[in-house]
Structure prediction request, 241 residues.
Amino acid sequence: MKNLRLKYIRSKMGFTQKELANYLQEAKHLKISRGTIAKYESGVNFPSKRTLKALSKALEVSEDFLAGNGLQTEDIEDTLLNLLQKNFFISYSYSNSNNSTHNAIHHYLEYLEKENEPYNFYKDSNGDLNTVLVNTKFPRYKEIDNFWKNNFKFLFEDRKFKETLIGSNKTELKEEVIQRINEEVNKDIKNHNVTTFINLIDEISHNIKQAAIKESKNKILKKELSDIINIQIERIPRNEK
Prediction:
């Protein structure tokens, strides 16, 4: 029997079992007692199809989600690892893959300059891919799992993101992961660009100050200082509209 997600939903609503029972009875006109809720949450009883439909409507969730269908909380980490592993190595068997999940994973690793590192876990002492491991479709083990966890921390350590995966099916899971990876790439690139720009401005400022000091000590002419200033200012990127 699947685990009803009633306790999870109740905790999100901030209700005790008694408060949820009161809410259902008073606001939704659904006669479910605190004792019934306790039995549902403990797994002693499971609601009938009619009650499940009424309860899901009252709680504003789908019947599938309330019934415990889709991805379970305790399965999220292993499911993410399987998704990353399978979809990254799928390109080894299928050249020019149009797999959007693979492309997102590869693009992020490429940004990290680690796009070839996963293959290193399957090489022999001569540096060649181990034929047995390749033929068994790159099996998972601790070291490769740690690689995924360390490089995709935003998938494994973001509690809010993981909560969005609860109850999702395979297609929904892939869509959520692709979107999250792409968001991370864009965020990292933006942060990198800002840092690069700040460092450039600091360097330009330093060069102009040094030239100004030389001019004040008559080591260079004012025209040379002016030329240096113009050259440094030209280094500042302009936004093209």
